[in-house]
Fold:
Amino acid sequence: MLRDARDPAAIEAAVQALQAGELVAFPTETVYGLGADAGNGDAVAGIFRAKGRPADHPLIVHVADAAAAGVFASSIPDFARRLIDAFWPGPLTLILPRRGGIADVAAGGQDTIGVRCPAHPAAQALLRACATAQPPVHGIAGPSANKFGRVSPTTAAHVQSEFGPGLLVLDGGPCQVGIESAIVDCTRGRPVLLRPGMLDVARIEAAAGQALARPEDVDRAAPRASGTLEAHYAPRARLRLMEAGALQTALDVLGAEARNIAVWSRAILRTPAAGVVRRRMPDDAAEAARLLFAVLREFDDQGVQLIWIETPPADAAWDGVRDRLQRAAAAG
Ligand code: TXA
Ligand code: MG
Structure:
């Protein structure tokens, strides 16, 4: 069931559903989340079942503000505190040491917890209403509202197409960031970037006051992060990344015979084939991120078998988009 997220009655219905241990999908500025009361293990188990996600892949917990992070985290290092001050509410998830006995199921067996304070007004309204409800819901465990390994949803309609009409979905319009939050692990003495998002790495480093390490720089075995699996975010069609020249050559080789192919490129490519679906990739990385998952779903809906995408530029602004595309390509 879709409900307008600006309707206070819809927020109230969502709070009651969460209190009753049910699942609710909600908008954030990055992607839509599939939420449950983080403090209710049975409810959170329902997220893993609905997504088909392995139980040892931890979920992040959404909170209304920095103070609520302290419900789930046992301590917050100084550099993490600076990141919170700089970027919350916003598209940044922090991995923090977990308070014993809290959100065990959401944490998937880790002694750490991912915490994020989203900026979307509907997410804020929902989280604030949850925090003041009786009994309160202090945090919403919420992975992206898609089946495990598939493309994340950036509209309420995407969520419905994943889980059907029975699920309560708060419709907050299309997500403005479009790819998932950046994840910084703050449990290893220095900040480690587990997943790039649309926050500039240089800005994160400036706020933290130190350089970001890469997971491979840190000796301890990395905790599981499904968004960091090599193959993830996959459309049904096989996705390949190619430079513009190689893409044009491939289209030229097939000529008028090309069919069941979709192309997303910044370069304007020529083909005589009517059966090739073409979309322009924006020159701006933020704009491309905003469209990315909707474009992949649109290509799948057209029934193409191949998706050919021009390799994004090498500069840091494209890190998040490049990361998602490389993982989607690895799944094919
Ligand atoms: O933008 C986002 O982060 C969205 C919206 C809904 O907030 N959520 C999201 O959740 O992308 P999900 O579950 O699809 O991705 C969260 C990632 C996963 O790769 C998960 O494994 C990792 O965060 N993660 C969660 N808790 C962790 C922990 N304690 N240690 C390491 N990684 C963790
Ligand atoms: Mg996900």
